[in-house]
Write a structure and sequence with these properties.
By secondary structure, this protein is mainly β.
C-alpha cells in the first residue's frame, strides 16, 4: 500500500508541516514542502542515502538551473536551485502517488529568479523499488528574455557510504585520490568528465555502496527531452559523490547549445520523467550484480516509454503520439555506380532547420533511431508537431535533410518513400585520412602520464578518457610537429588524436603546424581540386590551410576562431562537428611531392585545439 505521510505522521494531506513522505513499503522518499527538494531516501535499512552532513536540506536532492538574463552573452550564469512555493497532491491512489511542487513568476522577481513557471513532479508506484521525477518549464508572453545554460536533477549521496577523497588537479573537478577508503585506488585520477557519455548510450548510471551492498541508479528511458541529438555528450556523476540527470548543458558543445529566449517568446517543455532506481543484494553476494540488475531495469523502463502514468496533460501518452518509417539510401557515384543502403545511419526528427541544424538545436524535442543494415528505420512515439527529417551516415561526410516537412498528429503512422542522401563530393578520392564518423577515436591516443592514471580506462575502448592527454603531445613530438606521408604513414599510429598547442614552459604555449605530404603523378592546372576537412571538435581554435608554401602570411583558408566545446580538457573524443570544403586551384599543386600545412594558430592555453574527424583530397570531377 502507498502512504503519503506529512511530517512523518499519518494525518490529513492538507497540512502546514514542512515535509511529506512517499512510502510504498520498499522505500521512503522525504520531500521539503513546498520547496520540492528531496531531503531523504530511506532504503534497505539505511535511514538516508543522501548526504546527511549537508545541514542545508536544499542541498541534497534537487532540480537546478544555470541561467543569465537575455542579451548577456558570454557572462557567467547564475546557479539556482529550483525552490517552489506551492505544494499539491495531484494523485493519491493505492497504486500511485503523484506530487506537484510549483511556482509562478512575475516582474517583481526579475533578475532574482529565472523567468519560468516551474512545476516539478514526483511519482511513486506500488511495488516499485524507486521513484520518478519530471518537470515542466514554461516561459510566457510578456516575460523577459533569458539564456538557459544548464538544467538537471542532482542527488548528493552520503560520503561515508559512497566515499571519494582527492586533491584537485588542473581544474577542481579532477582530483588525485590521495586518501581513498579503498586503498587500491590511491594515486589514481578521478574526474567527473571521465564518466561523460553520448546521449544515445546514456540510459543508466549510478553508484554502488558496499556496506550494506546496495545501488543508487538514475535511469533515463528516452532522449526526446535532451538537446543536440544522439551524439551530444553529458555528465553522469560528480566527484562528491553526486548522481545527475542532465537535460540541457553546454558541455562538449559550448554556447551553441545554450537556448536563448527572446522577450515574450512563448516556450514550454517537459523534462523527463527519469527513474531513480534502488536495488540491493544480500551480504556475501557480489555487489557488482547490482549493475547487471540496473541494466535489466533500464531495458524495462525503455520498453515502457512513453510512460502511461504521468498525470500532466503536457506529457502525451503513446496513443497521442505518432510513428514514421522508411528507408534511406546513399548515392555517391565516385564510391559506387548505384545507390547503396544507408547501413547504420542515424535518422531523426527535429524542429525545422538546415541540414545538420539538429546538433545545435536546444529548445524543443528530438526523436532519433538507427537504421538497420538495409537502411530501414522506424521512429515511434513522436510528439505531435512539425519536423524535418535529418540523417547522417557513418562512413560518409555531410548531413542529410529531407525537403519534405513531416507533420505528426495523434495516432498517425506515416510511411515515407525511399530517401536518397548524396554526400558532398566533387571528384574522385586521391587520398584520405581517418574515418568519417564524427569522432577522432580512430587516431593515435597515447598512454597517460603514469602519475595521472585511471585504471578503469587501461586497455579500454574509451582510452581517451584518461586525464592529461593534451600534455603528452610535447613529450611525444619534442623536435617538431607531425609529418604525415600519404601511402607510408598510418593514421592509427602517426596522427595524434588532437592538434593541441605545444608547451614551451609552464605558462607559454605555441601553435602547431601539421604537414600532409603526398605525390601526384599529374596535375590538371586549370581544374579545381577539393580538400574536405571534417573536424570532430574545436576549442577556441583557428585552423589555417596552406599548400606547398608554409611561409606565406595569408593562408589559403582560415576557419576563423571557432568552437568552445572544450572536449580536449574534458576527455571527449569529439564535440560539435564541422565540415570545411576548400577549393584548390590546380596551378598551386605540382607533379611529384606536395605538402598541405594545417596550422592551429591560437595558443594561449593548453586546451585550445582541434580534433580531426576525416580529411580527403578529391581530384577534379570526371567529365562525361
Amino acid at each position: 500500500m502507498l502512504l503519503l505521510l506529512p511530517n512523518y505522521k499519518k494525518r490529513s494531506i492538507v497540512s502546514l508541516y514542512h515535509h511529506v513522505v512517499m512510502d510504498n513499503g520498499i522505500l521512503q522518499v522525504t520531500l521539503l514542502v513546498p520547496d520540492g527538494i528531496v531531503t531523504g531516501i530511506k532504503y534497505n535499512g539505511v535511514d538516508n542515502l543522501l548526504e546527511i552532513l549537508n545541514d542545508d536540506e536544499t542541498n541534497r536532492g534537487y532540480w537546478d538551473v544555470v541561467w543569465s538574463s537575455g542579451g548577456t552573452k558570454g557572462t557567467t550564469g547564475i546557479f539556482e536551485r529550483l525552490i517552489c512555493t506551492t505544494y499539491k497532491v495531484i494523485l493519491e491512489r493505492d497504486d500511485q502517488i503523484e506530487l506537484s511542487f510549483s511556482r509562478a513568476w512575475d516582474v517583481s522577481l526579475q533578475d532574482k529568479l529565472i523567468p519560468l513557471k516551474i512545476d516539478k513532479r514526483f511519482i511513486m508506484l506500488k511495488g516499485s523499488s524507486g521513484f520518478y521525477s519530471y518537470a515542466i518549464y514554461e516561459h510566457l508572453e510578456g516575460w523577459p528574455g533569458f539564456n538557459l545554460d544548464e538544467t538537471r536533477i542532482a542527488f548528493k549521496l552520503r560520503k561515508d557510504k559512497l566515499p571519494d577523497r582527492g586533491q584537485p588537479l588542473a581544474y577542481p573537478e579532477a582530483v588525485l585520490l590521495v586518501n581513498p577508503v579503498e586503498p587500491e585506488f590511491k594515486g589514481e585520477v578521478d574526474d567527473k568528465y571521465q564518466y561523460s557519455c553520448e546521449d544515445k548510450d546514456l540510459k543508466v548510471h549510478g553508484w554502488i555502496c558496499m556496506d550494506p551492498p546496495l545501488g543508487f541508479w538514475i535511469i533515463i528511458p528516452s532522449d526526446e527531452f535532451r538537446s543536440g541529438g544522439p551524439l551530444k555528450q553529458n555528465l553522469t556523476s560528480h566527484v562528491g559523490p553526486t548522481a545527475l540527470s542532465v537535460f540541457l548543458s553546454a558541455h562538449y558543445a559550448g554556447e551553441d547549445l545554450v537556448p536563448k529566449f527572446g522577450d515574450g517568446e512563448p516556450w514550454k517543455k517537459v523534462f523527463g520523467p527519469v527513474f531513480i532506481y534502488l536495488n540491493y543484494v544480500n551480504e556475501g553476494e557480489d555487489p557488482l550484480t547490482l549493475w547487471e540488475d540496473a541494466k535489466e531495469q533500464m531495458l524495462i523502463e525503455v520498453e515502457s516509454w512513453p510512460y502511461s502514468f504521468p498525470a500532466s496533460e503536457d506529457f502525451p501518452s503513446s496513443s497521442q503520439r505518432g510513428n514514421i518509417s522508411g528507408r534511406l539510401l546513399v548515392q555517391d557515384r565516385y564510391f559506387k555506380d548505384y545507390k547503396i543502403s544507408a547501413s547504420g545511419a542515424y535518422v531523426g526528427l527535429a524542429p525545422p532547420g538546415e541540414a545538420g541544424s539538429w546538433q545545435r538545436e536546444c529548445k524543443d524535442y528530438q526523436f532519433w533511431t538507427k537504421a538497420d543494415e538495409e537502411g530501414y528505420y522506424v521512429i515511434s512515439d513522436i510528439r505531435a508537431g512539425d519536423y524535418n527529417l535529418y540523417a547522417f551516415v557513418p562512413g560518409f561526410i555531410g548531413d542529410y535533410k529531407s525537403d519534405i516537412k513531416v507533420t505528426i498528429t495523434s495516432g498517425c503512422s506515416i510511411e515515407i518513400d525511399d530517401l536518397v542522401f548524396e554526400p558532398p563530393r566533387n571528384g574522385p578520392t586521391l587520398w584520405e585520412i581517418g574515418i568519417p564518423d564524427r569522432s577522432a577515436r580512430e587516431f593515435y591516443i597515447p598512454d597517460p602520464d603514469p602519475k595521472y592514471i585511471n585504471k578503469l580506462f587501461v586497455n579500454h575502448p574509451d582510452k581517451f578518457r584518461q586525464y592529461g592527454l593534451w600534455e603528452r603531445y610535447t613529450g611525444l613530438y619534442p623536435n617538431g610537429d607531425i609529418v604525415f606521408t600519404v601511402g607510408e604513414s598510418d593514421y592509427k599510429k602517426d596522427w595524434f588524436f588532437a592538434q593541441v598547442t605545444r608547451k614551451r614552459d609552464e605558462k607559454t604555449y605555441i601553435g602547431t603546424t601539421w604537414q600532409i605530404k603526398f605525390k601526384l603523378d599529374s596535375v590538371k592546372q586549370k581544374e579545381i581540386y577539393t580538400l574536405r576537412v571534417a573536424l570532430a571538435s574545436a576549442a577556441q581554435a583557428e585552423l589555417q590551410v596552406r599548400v606547398n608554401d608554409s611561409s606565406t602570411n595569408t593562408p589559403l583558408f582560415s576557419s576563423g576562431v571557432i568552437g568552445k566545446d572544450n572536449a580536449i580538457a574534458r576527455h571527449g573524443i569529439h564535440g560539435l562537428h564541422w565540415l570545411f570544403n576548400v577549393n584548390l586551384q590546380g596551378n598551386i599543386l605540382v607533379e611529384g611531392e606536395n605538402t598541405i600545412y594545417l596550422t592551429q594558430a591560437n595558443s594561449t592555453s593548453p586546451f585550445q585545439g582541434i580534433m580531426y574527424d576525416y580529411i580527403r583530397l578529391e581530384g577534379p570531377p570526371y567529365h562525361d
